[in-house]
Amino acid sequence: MPRTARPIDFFRVWSPEMAYVLGYWWADGYMRHRSDNGAHIVEIASIDRDHLLTMAQVIGGSCSFRKVSAKGDCYHIEFCNRDLYNDLISLGGMPNKSNVIGFPVLPNHLLVHFVRGFVDGDGTLSWNGDRPVLHIYSGSYQLLADMAVAIAEQTGIPAPNVVANRSLWYIKWSTIRAKCLAAWLYVEHPGLALDRKAAIAATFLDWQPKKRPERGTITEEMRVQFHAYLPPQE
Questions:
Q1: What is the distance, to the nearest Å, from the Cα of residue 200 to the centroid of all Cα atoms in its chain?
Q2: The domain spanning residue 56 has which CATH number?
Q3: What is the mean pLDDT of residues 156-176?
Q4: pLDDT for the residue 3
Q5: What is the mean pLDDT of residues 118-146?
Q6: Residue 108 in 3-state DSSP?
Q7: 191, exposed or middle or buried, with CB in 10 Å at 0-12, 13-18, 19+?
């Protein structure tokens, strides 16, 4: 790709699509400045080929696309663009970010799109027996701690503790809290989303607790925002 690539201003104007892709890059993106030729590289990786191509189209401009074989199929899109690189830097992005990157400053109404992008990149929605569970992983403790607080402030879902998991950290919601978080991310605020995770989120919405949730599991803020997904009060 030529070093004089046309400017890409995607990360300069906040929108649901920009916040989503930013969240995905925060989770599964890279950036580097090559000293040999001065190139500024922005890259996103995913095992979901079609979703990666969708994000490339949303970002716009010219990019390269390749398949990388390493423990299964993985795909990469790569932009050689100084403007895209510098705009990510201005938002808090950095090379070698995995263990040190913080939580970005972003408009409150776009938090949900950023978090959905991050979950689609480095989160899991799964079932532990008959219990829905949602995890978010990162090498950065502070990123997860600040993200958990930001989510709690907007949703009323209490912030979970950040837990060590080998070389990573994670935060976890389960049962009714995972159901409400899935509804917030994939139903109440639709937008760009990874189809396979959105499909699992949809199955969470049908889940009902077999017994009355323990006191404090459902906050008053959750009752206001997620009343349609909660068991009735007794």
A1: 15
A2: 3.10.28.10
A3: 96
A4: 46
A5: 97
A6: helix
A7: middle
